[in-house]
Amino acid sequence: MSDWKPIIGLEIHAELLTQSKMFSACPVVDSVTAPPNTAVDPVSLGLPGTLPVINLEAVEMAMMVGLALNCEIPAINQFARKSYFYPDLPKGYQISQYDRPLSVRGTLDIDLSDGTTATIRVRRAHLEEDTGKSVHVDGYSLIDYNRAGVPLLEIVTEPDIHSAEAAEVFARKLRAILQYLGVNDGDMSKGVMRVEPNISVMHKDDTGYRTRTEVKNLNSIRSLFRSIEYEVARQIKAWESGEGVRQATMGWDEAKQRTVVQRYKESADEYRYFPEPDLPVVEVSREWVERVRARLPELPDAKRDRFINSFGLSRYDASVLTAEKAVATYYEGVIADGANPKSAANWITGNLFGLLNRDGIERESAAEKVAPEKLGALVKMVDDGTINKATGVTVLNDMWETGGTPEDIVKAKGLGQISDTGAIEAALAKVLAENARLVEDYIAGKDKVFGPLMGKIMAELGGRGNPALVKETLTRELNARRG
Length: 483
Ligand code: ADP
Ligand code: MG
Fold this sequence. Notes:
Elements: E1 4-15, H1 56-68, E2 76-77, E3 79-83, E4 93-97, E5 103-111, E6 117-129, E7 133-137, E8 140-144, E9 151-157, H2 164-181, E10 193-203, E11 213-216, H3 221-240, E12 248-253, E13 258-264, E14 274-275, E15 282-283, H4 286-294, H5 300-311, H6 315-322, H7 325-335, H8 341-358, H9 366-369, H10 372-383, H11 389-402, H12 406-412, H13 421-434, H14 436-443, H15 450-460, H16 467-482
Parallel strand pairs: 11-12
Antiparallel strand pairs: 1-9, 1-10, 2-15, 3-4, 3-14, 5-6, 6-9, 7-8, 10-11, 12-13
Helix pairs in contact: 2-3, 5-6, 7-10, 10-11, 13-15, 13-16, 15-16
The site of magnesium ion has 3 residues, from loops.
């Protein structure tokens, strides 16, 4: 179809959920809700004469992520000064890692909707510190240094991603890994995880890469997807019209759904990197790596495979249920009290996700709308025949609106399935009496009138008859009449 192929590499910044900052004992607070400048100290303010100390918890968290991404952990990593001036960077340099990052050469496999799997190479993942935040109000610029010095992990992929969909799947999976490891909660709207795509397009006759642009300040996975689609289309058009693409840093205009140039890059930025003289190199023994590896929890791929093997779920359902930590935990909560795992998967991925989508609620908030143990009880009531499937859907809608338990809703609304043989026989007698023609047809050998008779009895029971019991009773009665 198209002669052009998207070439995308991602740079992801993830704050680490440590107790204290990267280079001091200053506590880490929620940078959105905490009052400004309440979690600062001389080190994170960059006051002269202060000395940084490496946060061991941050190093181990970063190592966990490196291992989860199948990276090599070199025997030595080292911090370096990256010099630039910006008001939210009080020292005039950021402590980062340069030529000796903590982890290198990893991979992450992603499952795409066309059924293929792509392996995305991870170039490196290194530790650094976050900057403060500038806020511009009424002609003033204010700075909040709470975030300055918060441990930050920067993950860089090779340009192995070839569609907006693949970038989205990669970002979701990486986010899930960070959540499973407990090192980041993945909230892009709060900026604790930031994903920046580098985008270019390649013509089928090209032998090398073309000029790329980079999109910054994306606050959701949705805008990551949209900005890539937009930028790829824009670049193809620009090349085809002969105008060409200039290397640039772009922003994403959420209202207009388009990328906008922030600045053109004529040459590579010069940061004057040099080894941080105030910190020792970090020596990583193989014993240390193995100790950290032993602490890794079950990760999304392993959980997906376990759901497939132990519960007989399809690969697709298992992927969906493990793509977010909160969803996997929800699912495990639904089946904890004995609900059938396959039925539970269907109720969650079908009915519950349908309601979440309809009301624009994130999947990770499902438990706030319908507690997992309540959905588990509903799944059991349908599977054991207390109510039928259609009634179950009605009850779930009611649970969604009221937060009630399925037992209470069924009782209050008289929705219980009718398994009372007396009631079924009465309805059956009435329907057979009113439909003598159909009964005669059946006796004469027309088996196909069974369905319509069954339907009429179910209608007589208000749709709540236990289908198996109704069928059994009707079969017995009709066969007795055939003689
Ligand atoms: P540096 O920061 O040293 O300039 P690179 O430019 O090699 O590093 O890579 C930065 C990011 O851009 C990486 O994620 C990489 O995969 C991606 N990238 C590099 N070249 C291209 C390209 N032509 N098109 C799209 N992404 C690219
Ligand atoms: Mg960086």
